[in-house]
Amino acid sequence: MAKLSFKEFKKAVLLKIAPVVFFIFLNLLYLSCKKKFYAKTKTNEIQHPAIFAFWHGEFLPILKGYIDFRGSRDIDTIISSHFDGELIAKAVSMFGGGTIRGSSTRGALRALKDSFRSLELKRDLGITPDGPKGPRHSVADGIVLISKKKNVPIVTINCKPSSYWQLSSWDKFVIPRPFSTLHIYVGEPFYLGDLSLEESKQLIKERLMENAV
Fold first, then answer.
1. Alpha carbon distance 38, 141 (integer Å)
2. Are 168 and 160 in contact, with CB atoms under 8 Å apart?
3. How far apart are CA 3 and CA 11, in angstroms?
């Protein structure tokens, strides 16, 4: 049996430990916070499946916020195939959600096919239009192609903590402070119809920026 290099060993340990730490941390953090939902449409009035779109930097509180709002874990979130994505994917699976591996920069075709399959199985789709590498608050083509191809609505979801830390990363990642209030905004479902690619991307961005951090 080939010996693991230190780098490979470090990655293997991280894959075992980091998702568990993230799962415990997020649960405790979310439980400590008050939650206020502002939804323009009741969850039972939103078509199932739907595409839930949110900014990469707001991912942390939205994971649990979606479950509370939808009352379901029937969602597959598109996560990059990079190592960081592997850590996140394992953590997401601990919450009961599914993952689709790939992004606009790596494994795009596979991610597209798997997204179609999830929607055909009546599972919601979670997409960060500016992930995995930005630019921040940009919209890649994938969400438009998927929504138009399967004729499913897009629902924007944002989270504005009353108090938070913000990292210096490209996405200005938001970490709510314990015991803060999470203001979770769920937009009205919308279809892209006959809009062009650029018009569709602009509409998605406008809807997501209405309540962005």
1. 28
2. no
3. 14
Average pLDDT over residues 114-140: 95
**pLDDT at residue 77 is higher than 80:** yes
- Contact status, residue 61 vs residue 176, Cβ threshold 8 Å: yes
pLDDT value of position 7: 78
Beta bridge partners of 161: 182
* pLDDT at residue 63, rounded to an integer: 87
Closest by Cα among 36, 52, 38 to 189: 52
With contact defined as beta carbons under 8 Å apart, do 14 and 91 qualify? no
Q: Are 213 and 57 in contact (CB under 8 A)?
A: yes
Query: Within a 13 Å sphere around the CA of 32, how many CA atoms are in the beta-carbon half?
Result: 13
Parallel, antiparallel, or unpaired for β 174-176 and 164-166?
antiparallel
**DSSP 8-class letter at 27:** H
- DSSP assignment of 96-141 equals T-EEEE--SSSSHHHHHHHHHHHHHTT-EEEE-TTTTT--TT---S
How far is it, in rounded angstroms, from Cα 80 to Cα 98? Answer: 13
Q: Please report how many Cα atoms fall inside a 13 Å half-sphere around the Cα of residue 177, on the Cβ side.
A: 6
Yes or no: say if 177 and 170 are a contact pair by the CB < 8 Å rule: no
pTM above 0.85, yes or no: yes
Token pair in block for residue 198: 């650029």
Q: What is the CA radius of gyration of the chain?
A: 17
**What gap in Å lies between CA 32 and CA 163, rounded to an integer?**
13
